[in-house]
Every structure is written in structure tokens, then in C-alpha cells.
Specification:
Elements (H helix, E strand, L loop, with lengths): L1 H10 L1 E3 L6 E11 L2 E10 L3 E10 L2 E3 L6 E3 L2 E4 L1 E9 H4 L8 E7 L3 E3 L6 E5 L2 E5 L14 E5 L2 E4 L5 H8 L19 H15 L8 H8 L17 H4 L31 E7 L22 E4 L15 E4 L8 E2 L3 E2 L3
Length: 340
């Protein structure tokens, strides 16, 4: 029984390739007794890199700390013929009779700020159709136009009250609950102060995302998604805190499903400040490559909707503006950060 299950496991393996500064190449997998052997080459400009292995079974992803692994993972020196052994039966005594996806990646897929603990995920750049692709948006979401963005690192979560307090020494939030609750009632100007202090503390450069980056990330890498992670309004409660389910309050991050890039609360919970000035007609003449918004304006852009908003207002293409000096209890932010 176990032998059959493991054999099915081997035949159903699916790999997921990625490319980063340090690159895992020529990955192969084979069954050796009751173990799986993954072999790969580690190439790139760096002498060593952080190699991670994950296994996904029926939609459940298992990180390295949940698996019995041996060999070349964690901090690994560049070179050929690297090996990782997975002791399958120690993790799944009955074997596995369903499709299994495996992933071996190196380098900068993930990044963590050493001072606040903020986590960032690598977003591979690309081109997409930005704006009201479903035809039910407002005039400032039109026309739909092609935009291309470079690679960047997006905060996995909205910045929390604890993280804000660590940098700024105060908590301006209306819902003062601390912990993983998103900070709110912060203005665009306040956030620039936060970024400046964080950069001085860590020596790393942080910033707000552009509108184009934000929408690209929200739509799971530029897919035609109405909301962050789904096109269906009846599935929205699985992904977002909004007026229908929030109980008139914010909630701790990551209690809802992430989108296709592993980003949480891109819709709902709190609106998120972007770097751009708002211009209702900007899309008519927007540059194709890495648009950064107009040079001036009355208000700065916020995206994603909040705990206060109905489904129409939490669409991925919805745009809102506020004065840079203003803030509200439904407005927060997430950052774009460096790889290290």
C-alpha cells in the first residue's frame, strides 16, 4: 500500500520554476527507496544563497520546517550537483496518492526587514491591461491601457500597529488593538516620515508602491482579476474584510485567503496609500513603462478598499484620493522593499 502510494506520488510530481539573482537550475526528482531525491545546480553571481524547498499537496503548502529533509538547503554554496533528500514516510506514513507540487528556489524570493520584521515577496515584472477591464468601473479607471512594470518586492501584509510603533514610538490608529492589526489614520506625509526613519535605522530603501505596481500585484501578477484573488463577488468574503463582514472594524492581517502572489488583504481591511498623485484623466496619456503618475495633483491615490466599503469599492481597479496630509480610520499602507 505504501509502495503504491509513493509510486503515484513520484509520477504525479509537478515542478514550479523560478529565476532569481541566484538561480536553481536543472532540478530533477526521483524516488530512491522510501525517499525522494531532488538534485539541482546553484548558479548566479553570489558565492552562496538561501535555498528553500516547499511541497504542496491538495492546495496545502509545507515549508522546510514541516518536512524531514536532509542535504543542500538553507545556506548553500554555489555549484553543481546539489542534493536534497525528502524522507516522505516520516511526514506521510500512509504515502501520498495525489498530485504533489515541489519547488526548489534560491536567493531573493522572500525578504524580511531586520528591524520591524516586515516580510516582502518577489514580484516578477511584466505587462498587463490596467484599469476597468470588467466594464463596471468609474471614469478615472478608464481607458484600459497596457502597462509594464519592472520586478519589485511587495509587502506581504499591511504595515501593522506594532511595526509602526517600533519605528515611530506611537500608535495613531483609531482601532488601537496593537499586534497584527493594520495601522490606520496615517497620512501620506506621515508615511514618508515612517519610511525615512526606517531607512535610516536599517540602511535599506523602502517606498510606497506606484499605482501600476499595486494593481499588478493585487491582480496576482496582472491577471484579469476583478478582486485580489478572485473574479466572483460571492467569493469576496473569503479574501477581504469589507462592509458585509467586518463588523465595522479592522482585523488582524492574514485572516483571509491571499491572492495568487501570496499577498494578504490587498482588498479590504484598510485602503492602501500609493505614491502617485491622482489625476482623473491620467490613464488617457499614461506612459507604458513603469508609470509613476502625474507630477502634481490635489490628492494622493489609495487602493484596495476597506472594512467600511462595499464590493464595488474594493475592486482591484478602484481608485480613491485623499489630501496627503489627511488620514482616516480606514486608510493604511504596505511598502515596496529591497531584496535584502
Amino acid at each position: 500500500m505504501k509502495s503504491t502510494a509513493i509510486l503515484c506520488f513520484l509520477l504525479c510530481l509537478v515542478s514550479i520554476p523560478y529565476t532569481y539573482a541566484s538561480e536553481v537550475k536543472k532540478v530533477t526528482a526521483k524516488q530512491v527507496g522510501n525517499r525522494m531525491l531532488f538534485e539541482y545546480d546553484l548558479a548566479g553571481d553570489e558565492t552562496d544563497a538561501e535555498v528553500k524547498v516547499t511541497i504542496t499537496i491538495k492546495g496545502q503548502t509545507y515549508a522546510m520546517d514541516k518536512l524531514h529533509l536532509e542535504g543542500d538547503f538553507g545556506n548553500v554554496r554555489a555549484g553543481r550537483g546539489k542534493k536534497v533528500w525528502w524522507n516522505v514516510l516520516q511526514d506521510f506514513p500512509q504515502g501520498i496518492a495525489s498530485e504533489v507540487e515541489w519547488e526548489v528556489v534560491a536567493g531573493d524570493k522572500m525578504s524580511r526587514d531586520p528591524f520591524t520584521g516586515m516580510e516582502f515577496v518577489f514580484v516578477k515584472g511584466g505587462c498587463y491591461q490596467m484599469g476597468d477591464t470588467f466594464g463596471d468601473g468609474l471614469s478615472d479607471e478608464k481607458p484600459v491601457h497596457e502597462v509594464c512594470v519592472d520586478d519589485f518586492y511587495m509587502g506581504i501584509y499591511e504595515v501593522t500597529q506594532t511595526q509602526w510603533e517600533k519605528v515611530m514610538g506611537n500608535n495613531p490608529s483609531h482601532f488601537k488593538k496593537g499586534g497584527h492589526y493594520p495601522v490606520e489614520q496615517v497620512s501620506w506625509n506621515d508615511i514618508q516620515d515612517f519610511i525615512g526613519r526606517l531607512t535610516r535605522e536599517t540602511g535599506r530603501k523602502y517606498r510606497l508602491p506606484t499605482e501600476a505596481e499595486w494593481e499588478y500585484a493585487a491582480r496576482s501578477g496582472g491577471k484579469k482579476e476583478k478582486y485580489a484573488g478572485t473574479n466572483r463577488e460571492n467569493e469576496l468574503p473569503e479574501y477581504a474584510w469589507n462592509a458585509a463582514n467586518s463588523g465595522i472594524s479592522t482585523h488582524p492581517g492574514a485572516q483571509k485567503k491571499p491572492n495568487g502572489l501570496g499577498l494578504y488583504d490587498m482588498n479590504g481591511n484598510v485602503r492602501e496609500w500609493c505614491s502617485d498623485w491622482h489625476d482623473e484623466n491620467y490613464y488617457k496619456g499614461s506612459p507604458k513603462n513603469n508609470p509613476k503618475g502625474p507630477d502634481s495633483g490635489i490628492g494622493r491615490v489609495l487602493r484596495g478598499g476597506s472594512w467600511y466599503d462595499d464590493p464595488r469599492e474594493v475592486r482591484a481597479s478602484t481608485r480613491v484620493r485623499l489630501y496627503p496630509s489627511g488620514g482616516s480610520n480606514d486608510s493604511g499602507f504596505r511598502l515596496v522593499g529591497p531584496s535584502r
